[in-house]
Specification:
Structural class: alpha+beta
Strand content: 25-35%
Pfam families: KTSC (PF13619)
Protein name: KTSC domain-containing protein
Oligomer: single chain
Strand order of the largest sheet: 1-2-3-4
Number of strands: 4
Number of helices: 2
Number of domains: 1
Helix content: 25-40%
Length: about 70
């Protein structure tokens, strides 16, 4: 389902990193994210709300350069 906040997201199973690109074009990589969190992000209707409730300020992150995959 499309999100008004999140443009794209992906998960690396080996490193447990979640990469989220927002509609602003900014991309952040979150560390040590359990796969269950990623699975729920895929499943929920409101990805922005779930991000705010379950991911934002809960995992260490770094801002990536724009257009980095």
């Amino acid at each position: 389902m499309p999100s008004s906040v999140i443009n794209h997201f992906s998960y690396n199973i080996q490193s447990h990193t979640l990469k989220i690109t927002f509609v602003t074009g900014l991309t952040y990589q979150y560390s040590n994210v359990p796969q269950e969190i990623y699975d729920m992000l895929k499943a929920v209707k409101s990805k922005g709300k779930y991000f705010n409730d379950a991911i934002r300020n809960k995992y260490k992150y770094k801002k990536l350069k724009k257009h980095q995959d």
